[in-house]
Amino acid sequence: MAYEDHGHTPAAWTAVIMIVAGFLVAGIGVIMLSWQVFWFGGIGLIVLGGIAGKVMQMMGMGKASREQTPDQAAEQMATTAAEGRSG
Fold first, then answer.
1. pLDDT value, residue 23
2. Dihedral-angle region of residue 65 (phi above 0 means left; psi in -120 to 50 means alpha; beta otherwise)
3. Which residue ranges make up each domain of the chain?
4. Which of 33, 47, 63, 86 is spaced 20 to 30 Å from 2 by Cα?
5. What is the structure's pLDDT at 3?
6. Distance (Å, rounded) from C-alpha 65 to C-alpha 16?
7. 45-74 pLDDT, tens per residue?
8. Per-residue three-class SS string for the chain
9. What is the value of pTM for the model shown?
10. How far is the C-alpha of 26 from the C-alpha of 24, rounded, in Å?
């Protein structure tokens, strides 16, 4: 089971659909022995899918990054300090 709501956002779905479509187009390009379809159609669509997903996330359509609470930040600093002394 996915952690919390992992990937249940418009940005994630758009990126995944574009990337899967890119793999399909690239596969068709390989079958047709057409490097233009493979590189410009398939690989280009894969790259655009990643960019589109990131842009949509930055526009607020993706999962917001988790911010640390003060207790979590203090715990992380204490663990880092303890590791530094023991090493």
1. 97
2. beta
3. 1-64
4. 47
5. 59
6. 19
7. 999 999 999 999 999 988 776 665 666 666
8. CCCCCCCCCHHHHHHHHHHHHHHHHHHHHHHCCCHHHHHHHHHHHHHHHHHHHHHHHHHHHCCCCCCCCHHHHHHHHHHHHHHHHHC
9. 0.68
10. 5
Residue appearing with tokens 């880092």 = 80
Residue 84 in tokens: 């530094």
CA pair distance 21, 35, nearest whole angstrom: 17
The region that residue 2 occupies, defined by phi over 0 for left and psi between -120 and 50 for alpha, beta otherwise, is beta
How is residue 3 written in tokens?
Answer: 């952690």
